[in-house]
Structure formats: structure tokens, C-alpha cells
């Protein structure tokens, strides 16, 4: 199957699997928590906090955190949040179930201070009109605790789910274990047979980014959501992939997948 056909189908899946009007895709949180993180007009810092917290935990925990903070602060303007005492931050984070609660109780107020000091309290200036995707990713990277994965995911969400118009160069794909696995099984990225495990992991992450740039130069990060979503929905890591159910079943070469997987497809 030509690579172009696989990429077209992957992008089609990405577009069709978005839920119009719900904002951030792929999370299942209570409506008031969703309303808050979707309110980029009044509370753009809610989006930033959730992105920073979306690490080593279930996304639902991270994206529900702004609402828990609003309840604790009695409001969600920047000053109200910054007035929250340290113990209150620690308490909200500990109750959230976030495995990095202690770290987040330090990083999230630091993020608000960065928004206050660098952006005059208005986080939407991070993605100000006329910005390129690369510039917005670079601005996210300036937050303490934000690495390339979170920075690229944040910008890709802004473009994909909030239709924020950014110019080229657009953001990269975010290196993620699900995305890597799906790229390998779709035959888009060869596996490496190197002697050092760390070398494989690091290089394969970089190769994934470069490959996405080759395959989707106008917006490499467009491949992020559909590959991640496939990896969590059908193309599992710890059990056999459900190829018979998978959207990509008709075009996927199933590289490295045991022939019994997806029986019935
Ligand atoms: S067809 Fe199977 S191997 Fe290919 S992406 Fe879907 S679940 Fe993964």
C-alpha cells in the first residue's frame, strides 16, 4: 500500500474522530471542568495549567485540575489563584490523584507567575495572532517542567481543537509511546536493531519527528492525534491489536504484528 494512501487515511481518521464543539478531544471529564479548560477567551491559563499537568497521569485528572483549583480559590482569575497558599495548592493536588502532586504543586503556581510576568497575566498572548506554530511551542517550552512533548501537544491541540490560526513552521509531532508503536506497525517508521536500549529510544523519538516532517511537511503535528488515538483505541501495546475493528485495517501492513492478531479482519 503506498505511503501516501496510509497518510491520507490516517489524516481522515484524525478529522473524523474529533467531536465537533467539545474542545479538547480524547478526555472524559465533567461538563463544568470541560467548560473551564475550553474557555480560552476568559481563562486561557486554565488550558495552560492542564497541558502542564498532563504528564505521567490520566489525562482526565490533568484536565479536571483547573476546576478543582477554581473551587479552592473561589474564582479563577490569576490573582485569586496566586493568592492561594502553598498548603492549599498541595491539598488540591494531593486530592486530585495526580502521581506527581508534589511536583505539580510547585510547577503550576510557577506557570501562573510566568504568565503574569511574561504575558501581563493573559496566557492567550502565548498564541497571539500572527505567531507561528514553532514560536508557540518555543513559548510553551519556557515554562518550568514543560518538555518538547507537552509543548508540541499543546500547540497541536490549539490548532486542531480550537482552530487557532498559526503560521508556518507548524509544530512537530509529539514523541509518545503510542504514536511510535502505530508508526512502526503502519510501516511508516522502521524499527531499530541497535545494541543500546537508550540509543534506540532517543534516536527513534527523533526519527519519528523527522519522519512526520517528511510525511506531512505542511503540519507534522497533524499526525499526532490520529496516531495516538489509534494506539489507545485499537493498536494496543500490552495485548493483541484489534486490527479487525481498526479504521486503518484496509491499508495497514501490520508490521511486527502476529498473524493471529485481528483475526476476523
Ligand atoms: S490495523 Fe492493526 S496493526 Fe494496523 S494500526 Fe490498526 S490495530 Fe494497529
Textual characterization of the structure:
This protein has twelve helices and no strands. It folds into two domains: 107 residues, Helix-hairpin-Helix base-excision DNA repair enzymes (C-terminal) (Endonuclease Iii, domain 2, Orthogonal Bundle); 108 residues, Endonuclease III, domain 1 (Orthogonal Bundle). The longest helix is centred in the middle third of the chain and has 19 residues. The chain is mostly helical and 265 residues long. Iron/sulfur cluster (SF4) binds next to helix 10.
Count of discrete domains: 2
Distance from N terminus to C terminus (CA atoms, Å) equals: 17 Å
Overall morphology = globular
In the CATH scheme, the class of the largest domain would be Mainly Alpha
Number of helices: 12
Classify the fold: give the CATH topology of the largest domain. Answer: Endonuclease III, domain 1
Uncertain residue segments: none
The secondary-structure class comes to mainly alpha
CATH-scheme architecture of the largest domain:
Orthogonal Bundle
Q: C-alpha Rg, in Å? A: 19 Å
User: Which ligands occur here?
Assistant: iron/sulfur cluster
Helix proportion range: 40-55%
Number of strands: 0
The succession of helices and strands, N to C, reads HHHHHHHHHHHH
Mean pLDDT: 95
For the largest beta-sheet, the strand count, sense and barrel status come to:
none
How much of the polypeptide forms β-strand, as a percent range? Answer: under 5%
Protein topology:
Elements: H1 3-16, H2 31-38, H3 44-53, H4 59-73, H5 78-83, H6 86-96, H7 101-119, H8 133-141, H9 148-160, H10 177-185, H11 197-215, H12 224-233
Helix pairs in contact: 1-12, 2-4, 3-4, 3-7, 4-6, 6-7, 8-9, 10-12
The structure holds iron/sulfur cluster.
The site of iron/sulfur cluster has 16 residues, from α10.
Amino acid at each position: 500500500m503506498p505511503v501516501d494512501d496510509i497518510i491520507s487515511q490516517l489524516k481522515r481518521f484524525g478529522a473524523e474522530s474529533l467531536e465537533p464543539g467539545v474542545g479538547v478531544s480524547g478526555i472524559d471529564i465533567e461538563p463544568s471542568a470541560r467548560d473551564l479548560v475550553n474557555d480560552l477567551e476568559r481563562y486561557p491559563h486554565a488550558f495552560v495549567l492542564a497541558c502542564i499537568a498532563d504528564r505521567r497521569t490520566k489525562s482526565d485528572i490533568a484536565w479536571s485540575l483547573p476546576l478543582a483549583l477554581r473551587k479552592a480559590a473561589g474564582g479563577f482569575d490569576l490573582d485569586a489563584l496566586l493568592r492561594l497558599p502553598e498548603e492549599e495548592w498541595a491539598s488540591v493536588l494531593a486530592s486530585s490523584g495526580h502521581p506527581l502532586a508534589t511536583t505539580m504543586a510547585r510547577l503550576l503556581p510557577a506557570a501562573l507567575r510566568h504568565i503574569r510576568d511574561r504575558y501581563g497575566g493573559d496566557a492567550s498572548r502565548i498564541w497571539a495572532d500572527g505567531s507561528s506554530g514553532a514560536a508557540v511551542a518555543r513559548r510553551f517550552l519556557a515554562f518550568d517542567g514543560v518538555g518538547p512533548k507537552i509543548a508540541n501537544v499543546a500547540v497541536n491541540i490549539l490548532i486542531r481543537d480550537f482552530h487557532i490560526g498559526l503560521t508556518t513552521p507548524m509544530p512537530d509531532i509529539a514523541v509518545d509511546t503510542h504514536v511510535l508503536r502505530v508508526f512502526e506497525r503502519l510501516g511508516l517508521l522502521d524499527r531499530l536493531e541497535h545494541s543500546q536500549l537508550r540509543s534506540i529510544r532517543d534516536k527513534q523519538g527523533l526519527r519519528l519527528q523527522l519522519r512526520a516532517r517528511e510525511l506531512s511537511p505542511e503540519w507534522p503535528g497533524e499526525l499526532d492525534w490520529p496516531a495516538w488515538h489509534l494506539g489507545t483505541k485499537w493498536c494496543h501495546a500490552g495485548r493483541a491489536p484489534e486490527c479487525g475493528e481498526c479504521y486503518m485495517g484496509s491499508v495497514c501492513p501490520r508490521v511486527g504484528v502476529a498473524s493471529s492478531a485481528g483475526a476476523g479482519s
